[in-house]
Amino acid sequence: MIVTILNIVIAGLLMGGIYALIAVGFSLQYGVARVLNVSHGEFIMLGAFITWTLYTVLGVNPLVCLIICGPITLIIGFLLHRTLFTHLRTSSVSFAAFEGKSMLASFGLLFIIQNTAILIWGNPARGYTYLDSSVNIGGAIFGANRLVTLGFALVIGLVFYLFLARTRLGKAIRAAAQDPGTAGLMGVNINQVLAICFGLGALMAGFGGVLISMCFSTIQPAMGFQYTIIALIVIVLGGLGSIPGSFIGGFVLGLIGSIVSYWQPALSLAAYYLLFVLLLLAKPTGILGK
Amino acid sequence: MDIGRVFSKRSFVLGLLLLLLILLATSPLYSPRYTVVLLSNIFMYIVITVSWSIFSGPTGYISLAPAAFFGVGIYTSAILGKALPLPAVIGIGSLASFCLALLVGALTLRLRGIYFIMFTFGLVELLRHLLLFWECTVMGRRGRIVIIVDNTTVYYLMLIIFVILMLTAYLIRRSKLGLALQSIGQEEEAAAHTGVNVTMVKVITFAISAIFMGATGSIMATKWTYIDPYIAFNPLYSFMPVLMAIFGGMGQLYGPVIGATIFTYLEEFLITRFPYYYMLIFGIILVIAIAYLPDGLVGLIGKLWKRISARKHAHT
Asked: Which chain A residues are Cβ-neighbours of B237 within 8 angstroms?
């Protein structure tokens, strides 16, 4: 009994770590840059595929890939925001119009990135194994790579929190999140800061992709969208725009998923959506939302 | 004289539309089978796109629920196709979509902006996964066989739905309801203060637009022989109409029609030969249309036309 509970809880936390990492990036892009980035999952897919290529072709350690994939997705995200989304933001008549437009534009990006990846890597599932020895935690058995992933997710989350709380750029980001107009008047280079936020969101996705490719044996060009949906559910759960909320929400969703799949595996996705729809109806502001 | 010109212009447009309708109605008699199938497909996308833009065009509420209503129509057809004649199936399909839209609308139209978008998207996924769970665990088999109907019947049914929809869309634009919808799109609070029953107007229009999606679903299902939740509730059917309407331009009634026609044709042309390039091009066009064509193709042509005619006037 205790082992079962331990199994469920640890599995939930392990999953939750990845969810939290993905959702924090997504939340940063929506909460500050105001882009509901439907193509978030595609950056995860890019991270996973670049890692796969580096590991299988050049033999680069997947953990080293973190410092390669992260900057790549960061730069792509930054450039995308500087060109496409800044143009949309300055040309939109209202805030709501920008939200709608940027969501649809990111949907276009989803198709562009995903199909470019198919053209490069082909459609079949790929995979590699790394650190797949098992670890025994009080009777519950888990892969070492899952634990490493959780550790990295926690560290990345913590570092990011410190970055937001303690650095000058972090302060600028928080100011831009509260009110982009006023932040601009106070001397924050708003286009730059929003683009950095978008880029950082993509960086998180890239990290997520590296860790996901390490944990799950198969990766595919079409894998991104499911993670976007998970991120979407998590940020609604945690409160739109609240970064600590999405971090906590990730773990909560991981636990919920783990409990439901223990009881009825086929229902776990349906349960996520049910939770999502009910949350939007009953408490759209989420756990930590204002 | 001015009135005479307006009248003649109007009768010219009416005559042109009538001619087009006669051409479309007689086309199965002389055109190859492939054309009929292609035209039915074009009608399918036009109906979904135009009915989407009835509600979302003027109000600015981006609904990603078309796939839900379309899917409900498809499943109605799959479940009742054997037991009932096709017109009854279509009727029930549209009614089911209408009821679902009423329920969803009443529940969610107080959500604004991004929350509404996310909810409508979640709805499609929820329906799909619940259905999938139901089929896999309770019924023990995934998917259903649909009774096939011949292409010409499908074509004529789609043509009828298309004509009814265009008339409805036209009348709504011209009516008080259309005006109310536009005022909601511009400033919802102000609309409420000027006496528009905001919730009522939104829910009713949302439900009316769902009728046509449901009807289309139950007709088009007969072309697929086999359906399962992944086919019926494919989120692509939610995003396609949005793209087509934006690409065509929502300022005019014929904008979404043009957008849907061009895209369906492009799809037919590219998807069999270069499926990945098709989706890639699809994405690029979507991004470009959103970034640089705020009023769509129709708006662009209108702008060019104005420039040309302005030049003409300047010369004379």
From this structure: none
Greatest mean pLDDT among A122-126, A237-241, A279-283, B156-160 lies in: B156-160
Measured CA to CA, the distance from residue B141 to residue B138 in angstroms comes to: 8
In this structure, what token pair is assigned to residue A150? 């959780």
Cβ–Cβ contact A139 with B under 8 A: no
Q: If you compute the radius of gyration of chain A from its CA atoms, what whole number of angstroms results?
A: 19
Are B126 and A270 within 8 A, CB to CB? yes
Distance CA A279, CA B62 (A): 19
At residue A43, φ and ψ (nearest 5 deg) are -70, -35
Query: Using 50, 70 and 90 to split pLDDT, how confident is the model at A278?
Result: confident
Contact A277 B126 (CB under 8 A): yes
- Of chain A residues 225-244, which have a CB less than 8 A from chain B? 229, 232, 236, 240
Place of tokens 């119009």: A97
Question: What is the ipTM, given to two decimal places?
Answer: 0.84
What pLDDT is recorded for position B312? Answer: 67
DSSP states of B201-267: HHHHHHHHHHHHHHHHHHHHGGGSSEE-HHHHT-THHHHHHHHHHHHH-SSSTHHHHHHHHHHHHHH
Tell me the pLDDT tens digit for each residue of B280-311. Answer: 888 898 898 888 887 888 888 888 888 888 77
Nearest-Cα distance to chain B for A186, in Å, is 28
Listed by start position, the domains of chain B span 32-245
Domain map (residue ranges) of chain A: 2-123+133-282
Chain A residues touching residue B286 (CB < 8 angstroms) = 104-105, 107-108, 111
The three-point CA angle A248-A268-A9 to 5° equals: 50
Q: Which of A39, A253, A280 to mutate to test the interface with B (most CBs of B within 10 A)?
A: A280
Q: What are phi and psi of B227, to 5 degrees?
A: -135, 150
Confidence of residue A270 (pLDDT cuts 50, 70, 90): confident
Q: State whether A276 and B126 contact (CB < 8 Å).
A: yes
Tokens 């009777």 sit at which residue? Answer: A139
Mean pLDDT of B108-124: 82
pLDDT average, residue stretch A155-173: 91
- Put residue A131 in one of left, alpha, beta given phi > 0 → left and psi -120 to 50 → alpha: left
Question: Strands A140-143, B226-227: parallel, antiparallel or unpaired by DSSP?
Answer: unpaired
Quickly state the pLDDT bin for A122 (edges 50, 70, 90): confident
CA nearest to B135, candidates B203, B233, B38: B233
Which class is domain A2-123+133-282? mainly alpha
Separation of alpha carbons B254 and B167, rounded Å: 12
Q: Say if the Cβ atoms of A273 and B243 lie within 8 Å.
A: no
